[in-house]
Amino acid sequence: MGKTARELGTQVDVIHLEKGARFPEPEEYDLVIIGSGIRMGEWTKEPLEFIEQKMESLSKTKVALFVVSGYAGNPDKVAEAQAEYLDSMPTKYPGLSPISTALIGGVFQFNKYNLAIRALVKNIIKDQMTPGEELPEKLDFRNWDMIHDWIKGLVEGLQES
Ligand SMILES: Cc1cc2nc3c(=O)[nH]c(=O)nc-3n(C[C@H](O)[C@H](O)[C@H](O)COP(=O)(O)O)c2cc1C
Fold first, then answer.
1. Domain that holds residue 121
2. Residue 71's CB: how many other CB atoms inside 10 A?
3. Three-class SS of residue 141?
4. Residues with Cβ within 8 Å of residue 138, at least 6 apart in sequence
5. What's the Cα-to-Cα distance from 155 to each of 8, 10, 62, 100, 148, rounded to whole Å?
6. Which of 14, 46, 69 maximizes ligand 1 atoms within 8 Å of its Cβ, making it the mutation to test the pocket?
7. Tens digit of pLDDT for each residue in 51-76?
8. Distance of CA 107 to CAs 6, 69, 70, 138, 140, Å?
9. Could you tell me which residues are beta bridge partners of residue 47?
10. Which among 81, 87, 88, 84 has a CA at the least distance from the CA of 101?
11. Are residue 22 and residue 89 in the same domain, yes or no?
């Protein structure tokens, strides 16, 4: 996302919240894109803490949200995932008013999971696999064209405003 936005002529800071990175106030940016992988139906803790701690400043600038989710590529689950993981955020965090959201297909690295996590994750992706198909070491459902187009739309929106 950062690379795409830079290639479109924007100045970008990519900040990894889980690494305890320090960051400037959100309101110093024209746009703040906040995202998370989904684990057990929830955003991870660092972006949620960031939203809670920086809500006042976030409410003074444009915000866009994305999640990387195992259900994003499942036609039967995609609407539910959009509603639960993204559309619910302004209700959970009053003051948060995203101009855009993106539900992005997930990455699964089975060689890194223990047996319990494997079983859980297999259940998430079972509809996206052929019955009887062996689990590969890694499945990557990210749709890079969609990700690129989302960022392009956001950057063009900023350049026009
Ligand atoms: C333990 C675990 C729980 C997960 N729970 C969900 C879930 O509830 N809903 C969902 O859509 N995806 C779920 N996923 C899939 C992840 O969202 C997907 O693997 C995503 O790529 C994780 O983000 P990350 O690659 O940034 O870690 C889960 C994955 C794992 C490993």
1. 108-140
2. 26
3. coil
4. 107, 108, 109, 110, 111
5. 7, 7, 12, 12, 11
6. 69
7. 999 999 999 999 999 999 999 988 89
8. 24, 8, 7, 7, 4
9. none
10. 87
11. yes
CB 158 within 8 A of CB 31: yes
Same domain? For 148 and 129 the reply is no
For the entire predicted model, the pTM comes to 0.94
H-run or E-run covering 146: helix 144-160
Are 148 and 135 contacting, i.e. CB atoms less than 8 angstroms apart?
no
Q: Is 98 in the pocket of ligand 1 (CB under 6 A)?
A: no
Report the largest interatomic distance among the alpha carbons of the chain, rounded to a whole angstrom.
52
Cα separation, 29 vs 22, whole angstroms: 15
Cβ of 6 below 6 Å from ligand 1? no
Cα 158 to averaged position of ligand 1 atoms, centre (Å): 31
> How is residue 100 annotated by DSSP?
E
19 — pLDDT class (breaks 50, 70, 90)? confident
Are 50 and 128 within one domain?
Answer: no
55 touches 23 (CB < 8 A): no
Same domain, 153 and 99: yes
Round to whole Å and give the CA distance between 10 and 33.
Answer: 13
CB of 40 within 6 A of ligand 1: the answer is yes
